[in-house]
Amino acid sequence: MYKSLIRPLLFKFDPEKVHYFTFDFLRNIFQIPGAAKLLEKQFQLNDPRLEREVFGLTFKNPVGLAAGFDKDAKLYRELSSLGFGFIEVGTVTPKPQPGNDKKRLFRLKEDQAIINRMGFNNEGVEKTVERLRKNNGVLVGGNIGKNKITPNERAVEDYVFSFNALFELVDYFVVNVSSPNTPNLRELQDKEPLTRLLNTLQQENQKRPKSKPVLLKIAPDLTDTQLLDIIEIVQETRIAGVIATNTTISREGLKSENKNETGGLSGKPLTKRATEVIRFLSEKSNKAFPIIGVGGIHSAEDALEKLDAGASLVQLYTGFIYEGPALIKKINQAILEKAESFKQ
């Protein structure tokens, strides 16, 4: 029904306006008595065999929602009811910021992709803190970044501010230095500034009675040499793991008319490269740390490939938009079926 009726209707309108319309629609649906239970019955697959223990946390299933969809933690509880095992909010910055000028979100229908140049638009970390105080059992990751006006030499201060503000309210952190839509942000992926940033956050982490897992989200555009540096940095700073990958600046092989828009590309064109990065990190590190696989997951098979390549968990974003919420359950069913086939 989603792909045959709902998606064609939604895709007739501006993608950013549709995003906010969908948020309002879901929020209103969940206010109808009994609606939440019906949606949970339709989309959730609760099975103890799907549980995963990763970096000290228990995930009820390995399929999560990637950052960028619920930037300000406005709908994490409702989205969790659709079957996700965890929700990642953000990217959050210390101060509110409007992001880049509109139009800044583009569908590439022929390529089953999206280009965005949102620019970390969010209401600021304090608003996110207020909303997360209402959490009741949803496993939430906090994706943190720097404000656009903050120069790179002071970026650490922004990350530390949001880290401390969110510490009691999220289950894990993601350091986002890989978005292509904040000027010069990707320079923070270089070995020296990245090591300094992660070490500083880990120092803050160790001040707490119980530390939180810190993950690094990386770009798919890194070279093998840079990926080897990432492995070294993860091991040196002792962070919990890596999210591979963010959006790409590559436009190779695209067909859609919006293919030359600036911004980060996500969706089906990223499937192969994201899996390559996961496999490289897993093999070259000898599986030394967990990896969350994200990028171009539009089917259960795509998710299984990422898990086979070395990912412990996966996340959806563009595939969720193109395929609808049924994709979550399909992936979890495929994971169970694969587990059963191994037993036979």
Descriptive report:
The protein is α/β, with parallel strands linked by helices. The radius of gyration is 19 Å and the shape is globular. The chain is 40% helix and 16% strand. It has one domain (2-343): TIM Barrel (Alpha-Beta Barrel), CATH 3.20.20. The strands form three sheets. An eight-stranded parallel β-barrel has the order 3-4-7-8-9-10-12-13, surrounded by five helices. The model has no long low-confidence stretch (mean pLDDT 94).
Derived structural class: alpha/beta
Our count of helices gives: 12
- Beta-strand content estimate: 15-25%
Rounded to the nearest angstrom, the radius of gyration is 19 Å
Q: Give the spatial strand order of the biggest sheet.
A: 3-4-7-8-9-10-12-13
CATH homology superfamily: Aldolase class I
**Between the first and last Cα atoms, what is the distance in angstroms?**
34 Å
Oligomer: single chain
CATH architecture annotation? Alpha-Beta Barrel
What is the succession of H and E elements?
Answer: HHHEEEHEEEHEHEHEHEEHEHEHH
Number of strands: 13
Mean pLDDT, nearest integer?
A: 94
Question: What does the main sheet amount to?
Answer: 8 strands, parallel, barrel
Pathway: Pyrimidine metabolism; UMP biosynthesis via de novo pathway; orotate from (S)-dihydroorotate (quinone route): step 1/1
GO cellular component, one term: cytoplasm
GO molecular function: dihydroorotate dehydrogenase (quinone) activity
Keywords: Cell membrane, Flavoprotein, FMN, Membrane, Oxidoreductase, Pyrimidine biosynthesis
